[in-house]
Design goal:
With 150 residues, the protein is of the alpha+beta class. Helix content is 67%, strand content 14%. It folds into 2 domains: 53 residues, no CATH class; 78 residues. Helix 2 crosses helix 3 and helix 3 runs antiparallel to helix 4.
């Protein structure tokens, strides 16, 4: 099957309703944009920047092997797994920083230093909450992927 037929099949198999801008119809699914312009199909990677990139050979290999929807889901799943790992590390570091600030706060005598350390502790607490929210969000996405494909 040639590349054009592949893109047409992917466009038609994508569960997203097409959007229209001028003469272009397109669908964006899991960071990949398939567009249809005057009978020609094109795929672009929208995951990393505002400017769309050409899809890498590695990602195209996954998409060709698994099909568009399952391939895009698999690539998104891999990124989500990395995110969860990074959020775990970030939360661990924030807790360690907060413990360090609390320890220094107990020993501090200067008003400026106390105010500064209390602010750092509050910031750590806020960052922990937002990071945990993101961590749980991506864990749910990983579980949804497992339920869908296992």
């Amino acid at each position: 099957m040639n590349k054009m037929n592949n893109l047409e099949e992917w466009y038609n198999s994508c569960p997203i309703q097409p959007l229209t801008m001028g003469k272009t119809q397109f669908k964006i699914y899991k960071g990949f944009k398939i567009s249809l312009v005057e009978g020609m199909y094109r795929i672009q990677d929208t995951r990393f920047r505002d400017m769309y990139d050409k899809v890498s050979k590695k990602d195209m290999k996954v998409l060709n092997l698994m099909g568009f929807v399952e391939g895009a889901d698999t690539l998104a799943h891999a990124r989500d797994c990395k995110r969860v790992e990074n959020y775990h590390k970030k939360v661990e570091k924030l807790y360690n920083d907060m413990d360090s600030f609390k320890y220094r706060l107990k020993r501090s005598r200067l008003k400026k230093s106390i105010d500064f350390l209390e602010k750092r502790i509050r910031n750590c607490d806020e960052n922990i909450k937002s990071t945990l929210d993101s961590l749980f969000y991506y864990r749910v996405k990983i579980n949804q992927f497992k339920e869908k494909y296992n």
